[in-house]
Amino acid sequence: MLTEPTAHIISPDTGTMSGASGKYEKKLCDLDGLYADQSAFKAQASSGGDTIVYEVCEQRPTQQAGDLIFGTTWMRPGRIGNEFYMTRGHIHAQANRPETYYGEAGRGVMLLESPEGDVRTLEITSRVLVYVPPLWIHRSINTGDQPLVMSFCYPSDSGQDYGIIARSGGMAQRIISVGDGWEAVPNKSYRPRTKDEIAAVYATCD
């Protein structure tokens, strides 16, 4: 049976997408453990733990292989210590599935890491499309002073593995504020993956 074609309006101001079938949000209190300065996190979360850091609107037409999931991410500007607000980040559970992100508004960085720990950083602004190839862990970071709004698209059978970052003590690098810009610095808590852990990522590919 054919799926009915649809059209969706994206608001660069609010990050909403018409016709979304689902929506979720992450509050500051949900992001414990992401930031290096835990004292700064606890102090901010104690008074503003209900602050919404980012929201996702999405449409999942079907879960069948070959279909797509698409939607929008809206992320508030802000910092914990010298680190910008960020998403939890993930690799796809089927690690050989790609993803695209298109900048609708604001300014940010896509932080990417291979299973072996190689790092790439790509700036994303309005009308910039970022391609996340298969097998790359990725996290979005708002480095601007306005909300970062992006639209995204990925295969419907991708799934997400959020634990891969936590199991390594975070990503290999952190994005910090420097003057009016940003800089990538080593994450002192990072633990490189073992050969078995790397092999387990590649084993998810079909």
Structure description:
By secondary structure, the protein is mainly beta. It has a single domain, classed as Jelly Rolls (Sandwich). Helices cover 11% and strands 37% of the residues. It has three helices and 13 strands. Strand 2 (52-59) and strand 3 (68-75) form a beta hairpin.
Which parts are unreliable, with pLDDT below 50 for 5 consecutive residues or more?
none
- Total individual domains: 1
CATH class call: Mainly Beta
Number of helices: 3
CATH topology: Jelly Rolls
Tell how many strands the DSSP assignment holds: 13
In percent terms, what proportion of residues is strand? 35-45%
Fourth-tier CATH superfamily name:
Jelly Rolls
Enumerate the strands of the largest sheet in spatial order, edge to edge or round the barrel.
1-2-3-11-6-9
* CATH architectural type: Sandwich
Described by strand count, sense and barrel closure, the largest sheet is: 6 strands, antiparallel
What do the pLDDT scores average to? 96
Order of helices and strands: EHEEEEEEEEEEHEEH
The radius of gyration is 17 Å
The global form is: globular
End-to-end C-alpha gap: 26 Å
